[in-house]
């Protein structure tokens, strides 16, 4: 039987008792005092049942409000997911989840729903949990330091305090998981998926719980925000890029990007490197700003799809600079043929000297001393042979252009 049906039944009982009071009093009639007492008890029960129903309705309303808040969180969170996913498939998946009301189809939505059901803490509750955790740490330190010398009863008591401290730590952490999600949304499209960013922020939240000093009077969320941001920024610096850059360089790049956005709003155009350097302050010039952007550029994968049908890859359009172009190969082959024809007009020793001196044998230019040792003559004799061979080639070229076309071209 529902709560509303219970209330209607109780009201009918009350009305029935009231009708009994309006009938003539007989010897079997209910005593007036008994009637009053019965009516009072029934009306009290009606009031209690109504209050219970109000609590149920309020609870359902709060739960529905939380669900709506989580839906807003979900819409923004999914925008931070991998944009490589097909948008239509993503919308279809979200539509199916919305129609069925199920939360198990998507881990992001399920996580957001779960943390949305945790009650937020008041300042007094934060202080109480922080105090319990601190007492647990002190008890743990005492157990580790003098546990063997403590009486059994004292040791069991300290162990209970330690367990209570860990429980308080977990409660303080869970109650602030929504803070991590709120901060993680601001780091979308930085190289990490949304849930990865949230998990890194959760590590910072745990660190904040461990370091929080409640006696200073600050709200925990104010203190935890710094630790969460630090954890996310360090994770982005370590994992957000294919090529890791130092943390300080990542912070510098973030500052430059922020200034570039601000200047773009003020100037209605992209700022120059010189304007960014002026905004950065002393010690900065246009060259340094350009160098930072060059060092922090993201590499492009050679497997990146190209074309409307993604049937080609970026690497297919990058030339191999280690291989000469067809035109260069043809020109090189023609020059080698002309060179061989020219060297054939020299005697064997003269041709060998020129080839060794100019690296035509092993792509290394040999010294006069090395060529002399190879032929068993002095370096001066090698110089004379080389000069004579070059004079012959010049004479031949004066009568037939031959190699001159390649030199002048």
Report on this model:
This protein is mainly α. The protein is built from 17 helices and two strands. A two-stranded antiparallel sheet has the order 1-2. A hairpin with a 5-residue loop joins strand 1 and strand 2 (312-313). Pfam families: Sigma70_r1_2, Sigma70_r2, Sigma70_r3, Sigma70_r4. Residues 329-388 form a coiled coil. Belongs to the sigma-70 factor family. RpoD/SigA subfamily.
- Tell me, what's the shape? elongated
Poorly predicted runs of 5 or more residues = 6-11, 13-32, 42-104
**CA gyration radius, whole angstroms:** 43 Å
Count of helical regions:
17
Structural class: mainly alpha
CATH topology descriptor of the largest domain: Four Helix Bundle (Hemerythrin (Met), subunit A)
Helix-strand sequence? HHHHHHHHHHHHEEHHHHH
State the domain count: 4
Distance between the termini: 102 Å
By CATH, the architecture of the largest domain is named: Up-down Bundle
- What is the β-strand count? 2
Query: What is the CATH class name of the largest domain?
Result: Mainly Alpha
Q: What is the percentage of strand-forming residues?
A: under 5%
* Mean pLDDT, all residues: 76
| Major β-sheet annotation | 2 strands, antiparallel
Largest sheet: spatial strand order: 1-2
- Helix proportion range: 55-70%
Please render the helix and strand layout as text.
Layout: H1 3-22, H2 32-79, H3 87-100, H4 107-116, H5 123-146, H6 152-174, H7 177-184, H8 194-211, H9 220-239, H10 247-267, H11 273-280, H12 286-295, E1 305-306, E2 312-313, H13 326-343, H14 348-357, H15 368-375, H16 379-399, H17 404-408
Antiparallel strand pairs: 1-2
Helix pairs in contact: 1-2, 2-4, 5-6, 7-8, 7-9, 8-9, 11-12, 14-16, 15-16
């Amino acid at each position: 039987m529902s709560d509303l049906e219970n209330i209607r039944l109780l009201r009918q009982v009350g009305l029935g008792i009231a009708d009994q009071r309006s009938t003539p009093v007989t010897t079997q009639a209910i005593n007036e005092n008994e009637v009053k007492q019965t009516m009072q008890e029934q009306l009290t029960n009606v009031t209690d049942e109504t209050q219970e129903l109000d609590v149920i309705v309020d609870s359902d309303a709060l739960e529905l409000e939380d669900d709506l808040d989580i839906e807003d969180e979900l819409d923004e969170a999914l925008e931070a997911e991998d944009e490589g996913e097909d948008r239509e498939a993503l919308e279809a998946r979200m539509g199916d989840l919305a129609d069925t009301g199920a939360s198990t189809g998507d881990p992001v939505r399920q996580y957001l729903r779960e943390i949305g059901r945790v009650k937020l803490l008041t300042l007094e509750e934060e202080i109480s949990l922080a105090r319990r955790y601190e007492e647990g740490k002190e008890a743990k330190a005492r157990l580790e330091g003098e546990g063997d010398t403590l009486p059994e009863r004292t040791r069991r008591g300290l162990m209970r305090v330690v367990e209570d401290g860990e429980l308080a730590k977990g409660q303080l952490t869970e109650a602030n998981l929504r803070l991590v999600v709120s901060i993680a949304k601001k780091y979308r499209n930085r190289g990490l998926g949304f849930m990865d960013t949230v998990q890194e922020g959760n590590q910072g939240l745990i660190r904040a719980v461990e370091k929080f000093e409640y006696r200073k009077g600050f709200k925990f969320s104010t203190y935890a925000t710094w630790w969460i941001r630090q954890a996310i920024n360090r994770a982005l610096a370590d994992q957000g890029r294919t090529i890791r850059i130092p943390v300080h360089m990542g912070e510098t790049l973030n500052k430059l990007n922020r200034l570039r956005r601000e200047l773009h709003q003020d100037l209605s155009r992209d700022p120059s490197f010189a304007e960014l350097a002026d905004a950065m302050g002393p010690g900065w010039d246009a060259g340094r700003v350009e160098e930072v952007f060059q060092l922090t550029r993201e590499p492009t994968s050679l497997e990146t799809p190209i074309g409307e049908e993604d049937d080609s890859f970026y690497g297919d359009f990058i030339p191999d600079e280690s291989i000469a172009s067809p035109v260069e190969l043809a020109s090189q082959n023609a020059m080698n043929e002309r060179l061989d024809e020219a060297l054939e007009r020299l005697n064997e020793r003269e041709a060998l000297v020129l080839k060794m001196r100019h690296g035509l044998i092993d792509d290394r230019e040999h010294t006069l001393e090395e060529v002399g040792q190879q032929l068993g003559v002095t370096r001066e004799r090698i110089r004379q042979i080389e000069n004579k061979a070059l004079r012959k080639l010049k004479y031949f070229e004066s009568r037939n252009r031959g190699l001159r076309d390649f030199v002048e071209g």
